[in-house]
Design brief:
The complex is a heterotrimer of chains A (405), B (189) and C (321).
Chain A: E1 19-23, E2 35-41, E3 44-51, H1 59-63, H2 68-76, H3 83-98, H4 104-133, H5 137-157, E4 166-167, E5 170-171, H6 177-201, H7 205-211, H8 219-224, H9 230-233, H10 241-244, H11 265-289, H12 319-329, E6 335-344, E7 347-356, E8 363-367, H13 369-380, H14 386-396, H15 400-404
Antiparallel strand pairs in A: 1-2, 2-3, 4-5, 6-7, 7-8
Helix pairs in contact in A: 2-3, 3-4, 4-5, 4-11, 4-14, 5-6, 6-11, 13-14
Chain B: H1 3-13, E1 18-24, E2 27-33, H2 37-47, E3 52-60, E4 72-80, E5 85-93, E6 100-102, H3 111-122, E7 125-127, H4 159-171, H5 178-188
Parallel strand pairs in B: 2-5, 6-7
Antiparallel strand pairs in B: 1-2, 3-4, 4-5
Chain C: H1 2-35, H2 51-61, H3 72-88, H4 107-128, H5 132-163, H6 168-174, H7 188-201, H8 213-216, H9 226-251, H10 267-286, H11 292-320
Helix pairs in contact in C: 1-2, 1-9, 1-10, 2-9, 3-4, 3-9, 4-5, 5-6, 5-7, 5-11, 7-9, 7-11, 9-10
The chains are: A alpha+beta (405), B alpha/beta (189), C mainly alpha (321).
């Protein structure tokens, strides 16, 4: 142990007006392993440099060495708040690339799980966003409802967080009557829960002071920063992939896209609250309109997991190689590329695939909304106060698993 | 206006740069030369209101055959929110050893990080980029992981990891169970 | 002999207060738990009744980590300053008629002085830890305490004018003549200012900026562990009780109640203090946190003018009635 204790003033040499603070990667409010290098003048942020990559697992490289069916599990680990939505996004993209048809029932099931995932993600967002601003009670209220949905996920596919529910050409399991009954009960009760959250924060004077007019993003600025999802719609840009490029059964459902005007934190908060109500409406329609039939499309049975053990695999090759061979045999692959976007809770999740007519993707790029939103933090974080930066990170609704991939 | 019309209009304005117009599964893409990519994007953004940049990424075409393909290409997926129509530009980057293309950060600030990512993972440089540094991998990382020549398993550890192990050894003197620490380091080696 | 009796009184008071601190944390966790649709501590003892004892033992036996770069003497001193000043202010509080350790005639000023000194502990903790988060927390605390001392002192000037004394026992006694025998109604503006300033003074939600856990990790106590952390914790809760006691004494009539309770004169006093503590906890479960500049704005632009208005109105009242 050193004898002398030095009392060093925490400023960098030669730059004595700036107080440099490294916020993260272990910080209670950075939602994972985001690091933000700040340069402060008192409490005001002069410069803000987000640093990511602590959770980089090389999914894009991994995907090039695994078959299309195997890559599905990677997508669970992107946005782990809404793994279902990622599964759907991935499957929609691969189905477009390989031209696989999906059965009607599977389409509705996909919409259903997507919206459930949206609710879980938005509830978690509300919980943590409110906690970031200091409102503690909303956190546990939101988790109460989220728990119901997680239990439903577990009942539907055996897993709460990493679901891997969809399959190329359909979904893995059909819903049971009990699940539908439970979901129906949830859908009936949920609007009252939203009203309950709103009584806590919606007109709270301090909440308004912390959110109204903070970090406003105009429509032009939002497009310039490539924001998507609720962050862009809060600025009044009518862009929702579910409406613009309908996938699954969204074109058969009736719902509205809530739009904001001011683009500040409060507007985005309102948008997400409205979106939860809209998701509820979609879920109700799914329950009512759920068509009977198979959960798997007619022309894609070979790519579905359950049939793999039934295929003949020669004793000296592993099941893994058997799968590759199996996929190579089917001549569904063409050279070409597709970009398919889906609306996940965080924004626009896009998959860009390049195929070179083999059983594995030649290139898979994931356009993750969180990555771009954290990039935008660099612009939005300038000139605000430390407490506002926390609120901005919360309002952009980023998840680092998706950002770093 | 449909994607094909926009592609044709683009070809009219930049006749030499458009190499081919492709369609795959109903999605249109234009293979273009790299020279006027900024102007093309500006043209599409201003004239055809393609104000949303869906996606910007790169592809390494080392083991992929195609008529106009160079070693690297940069993909720009553009979308017009007003007209609900999208178009993909695939810019072929000529120099395979030192790939370099104009940055479009002047059109979309959000392209900043996407270009940094393409630089980080594929090694494509962007001219006039404000802050072209690695974003996902550490600053002193060697190689660009998404190039087809990059091996799945390397021969050596990342230098930062060896530094970390050194630091761990130094700090282990403050730990009160030295035996435990030594076991830990052996396991790591 | 006299000294021995006083020492005995001090020991009894300390024991009661520290027990109260322990069970205030339990009360807080239970109340907030039930407000947040959960149960709070349930494992240690019946409905978690022994939880504070377990926590106390845990923090007492925990390793006391001192950062290598910290300014060691100040680092060790800071929690002691906090705790001692807070405990010292207990001396002048009248719990019932005659139930006061030191019945000095500047009681109110003494309490102000002590709570100002306690902020030294916080600032020193922030400085001596030599960590960036604690430094920011300490700075915030400094600004906050200075800004809220002023409206707090001013809000009580009305009470002093009405009672004509700084002695807390005198203040309680003089409240007999006013409406419902409490100063709450003639001093309603003063009470509002006092209440808000009280929350800020004790670093409680919505003014818990010095230790805002989502912004500054844990503010000035980030680097503290074990017993030293517990000392800050105790100081905060004793501070809450002292402030609640001042509120009770100055605005709610102290130990006076609708009818006297035989054998236990401080009954009404304690009940009122518990009411204040419940308010503290209720607010913590409900409100978000202010931003630093908004806090300053509230203090300087709203509370100080209101407190001045209150003094003016009280002066007019005294002059004409």
């Amino acid at each position: 142990m050193t004898e002398t204790t030095t009392l060093s003033v925490p400023v960098t040499q030669g730059d004595e007006d700036k107080y440099k603070l490294r916020m993260g990667p272990q910080h209670p409010a950075t939602h994972g392993v985001l690091r933000v290098d700040l340069e402060l003048d008192g409490e005001t942020i002069l410069d803000c440099y987000p640093q990511v990559g602590y959770l980089h697992r090389g999914f894009e490289k991994l995907a090039e060495n695994r078959t299309y069916a195997q890559n599905l599990v990677l997508t669970d680990r992107l946005d782990y708040m809404a793994a279902m939505a990622n599964n759907v996004g991935y499957c929609e993209a691969v189905e477009k690339l390989l031209d696989i048809n999906v059965s009607e029932r599977a389409k509705f099931l996909r919409v259903m799980v997507c919206e459930m995932a949206r609710l879980t993600s938005h509830l978690l967002w509300l919980a943590t966003h409110a906690l970031d601003i200091g409102a503690m009670t909303v956190f546990l209220y939101a988790f109460r409802e989220r728990e119901t949905l997680m239990e439903l996920f577990a009942e539907l596919c055996g897993s709460r967080l990493t679901n891997t529910y969809t399959r190329l050409g359909g979904v893995r399991q059909d819903v049971t009557h009990e699940i539908m009954m439970k979901l129906d009960r949830f859908v009936n009760e949920f609007p009252a829960c939203i009203a309950e959250y709103e009584t806590l924060i919606d007109t709270n004077r301090i909440w308004l002071k912390r959110t109204v007019g903070i970090a406003p993003v105009s429509a032009e600025m939002g497009l310039d920063l490539c924001l998507t999802g609720a962050s862009l719609r809060g600025s009044g840009v009518d862009y929702d992939v579910r409406k613009h490029m309908p996938y699954a059964a969204y074109d058969q459902l009736d719902f509205e896209v809530p739009l904001g005007e001011t683009g500040d934190i409060y507007a985005r908060y309102r948008i997400r609250m409205e979106e939860m109500l809209q998701s509820n409406i979609i879920l109700r329609q799914c329950i009512e309109k759920m068509p009977p039939g198979s959960i798997v499309g007619d022309d894609a049975p070979d790519l579905i997991m359950p049939t793999i053990p039934q295929k003949k695999v020669t004793p000296d090759t592993s099941a893994h190689q058997g799968l590759i061979k199996l996929i190579d045999d089917r001549n569904v692959y063409m050279e070409g590329d597709v970009y398919v976007a889906t609306e996940v809770p965080k924004g626009e999740l896009g998959f860009y695939f390049v195929s070179d007519s083999k059983g594995k993707p030649y290139r898979m790029h994931i356009r993750s909304p969180s990555f771009i939103h954290i990039g935008a933090l660099q612009t939005l974080g300038k000139g605000v106060m430390v407490a506002d930066l926390i609120a901005i990170i919360g309002t952009l609704d980023v998840v680092l698993g998706e950002c770093d991939r | 206006m449909e994607s094909i019309r926009i592609a044709e209009d683009l070809e009219k304005h930049f006749p030499d740069s458009i190499l081919e117009i492709q369609v795959h599964r109903g999605q249109f893409s234009a293979i273009v030369a790299q020279e006027f990519i900024l102007e093309m994007c500006q043209f599409l953004k201003e004239k055809h209101k393609m104000n949303h940049l869906n996606c910007l990424t790169g592809v390494d075409n080392l083991t992929r055959k195609g008529k106009h393909f160079e070693r690297f290409e940069v993909i720009y997926q553009l979308y017009s929110i007003e007209h609900r129509v999208g178009l993909r530009l695939k810019a072929q980057v000529k120099d395979s050893d030192n790939p370099c293309i104009d940055s479009i950060t002047s059109l979309w600030t959000g392209a900043d990080w996407l270009e940094r990512e393409a630089f980080d993972l594929l090694g494509i440089s962007f001219n006039n980029h404000p802050n072209l540094k690695r974003v996902l991998t550490p600053d002193d990382w060697e190689g660009h992981p998404l190039q087809k020549t990059y091996k799945l398993k390397g021969n050596t550890e990342w230098s930062g990891f060896t530094d970390l192990k050194e630091k761990f050894k130094q700090l282990s003197q403050f730990d009160f169970q030295n035996t435990h620490v030594q076991e830990g380091t052996q396991a790591n080696d | 002999m006299q000294i021995l009796i006083i020492l005995l009184q001090i020991v009894i008071l300390l024991a009661i207060v520290l027990l109260h601190v322990a069970y205030t944390t339990y009360f807080e966790r239970k109340v907030i738990g039930h407000m947040q649709v959960r149960l709070g501590p349930m494992t240690v003892g019946w409905h978690g009744l022994l939880q504070p004892i377990a926590d106390g033992i845990k923090s007492f036996f925990k390793e006391d980590i001192i950062p290598e770069q910290a300014d060691k003497p100040l680092f060790l001193l800071a929690p002691v300053i906090c705790l001692v000043t807070m405990l010292a202010s207990l001396a002048v509080l009248p719990f019932a008629k005659g139930w006061v350790l030191a019945d000095i005639n500047i009681g109110l000023l003494f309490i102000f002085a002590m709570s100002s000194l306690a902020s030294y502990g916080i600032i020193l903790a922030g400085w001596a830890s030599n960590s960036k988060y604690t430094f920011l927390g300490g700075m915030r605390s400094m600004a906050q305490v200075i800004s809220y001392e002023i409206p707090m002192g001013m809000s009580l000037i009305g009470v002093m004018m009405l009672s004509g004394s700084l002695n807390l026992t005198e203040i309680v006694n003089s409240q007999g003549g006013s409406l419902f025998s409490i100063y709450l109604f003639p001093q309603i503006i003063g009470f509002f200012v006092f209440f808000v300033a009280m929350l800020a003074e004790t670093n409680r939600v919505p003014f818990d900026l010095p230790e805002a856990e989502t912004e500054l990790v844990s503010g000035y106590i980030t680097e503290y562990s074990g017993m030293r952390y517990a000392m800050f914790f105790m100081a905060e809760y004793i501070g809450m009780m002292v402030m609640a006691s001042i509120g009770t004494v100055c605005f709610l009539g102290g130990w006076n109640g609708p009818f006297p309770i035989p054998f236990f004169p401080p009954f009404w006093f304690i009940l009122k203090v518990y009411g204040f503590l419940f308010l503290f906890i209720w607010i913590r479960a409900t409100l978000p946190r202010y931003r630093y500049d908004q806090l300053m704005e509230l203090g300087w632009k709203l509370l100080i003018p209101l407190a001045l208005l209150n003094i003016f109105l009280t002066g007019l009242f005294k002059a004409f009635f």
